[in-house]
Amino acid sequence: MEYLDLYTKDRVRTGNTILRGTKVPEGFYRLVVHVCIFNSKGQMIIQQRQTCKDDWGGMWDLSAGGSAKAGDSSQNAAKREVFEEIGYDIEEDIRPALTINFKNGFNDVYIIKSDLDISSLKLQEEEVKAVKWATLSEIKSMIADGTFIPYHISFIEMLFFLLEKDGVKIKKEK
């Protein structure tokens, strides 16, 4: 059994937990993380979910992600999910590139740069069927043809944008 922490709207841990799969009570929130791993060619590792998965089975998704378990910080959850799902150990200190609020929680999105060899990854058999490198245009085509989870195209474009930017403001030259 897996438990998730409940948070206030201000992202303060309440000390209360719920069993994974249980509806988040009104007025409380949960934490989700997504990690996007990019190489120096500007490609993202994407994973194909196992066909037996209840949510989006057989479809392609971002590099890794999932709910933070009770006691997890966002960073620990991100590192754990990547290691569990694709066997890659993120050793550096990380922080989210952005946080997206959704009805019942917070989704921290991490951008990692690494030229790792995907043939050396150890995929979690219960969760991940395959991984591959993909460009922005390939992911957009996969969303259009229904083989990738139907994220908003602007979200996917923002992930690729954030890869090369330090925040979202254009720095004025002096």
From TrEMBL:
Organism domain of life: Bacteria
Domain Nudix hydrolase, chain residue ranges per copy: 28-156
SUPFAM superfamilies found in the cross-reference section: Nudix
Pfam family, one: NUDIX
One of the record's GO molecular function terms: catalytic activity
InterPro entries: NUDIX_hydrolase-like_dom_sf, NUDIX_hydrolase_dom
Name used for this protein in its record: Nudix hydrolase domain-containing protein
Species this protein is from: Peptoanaerobacter stomatis
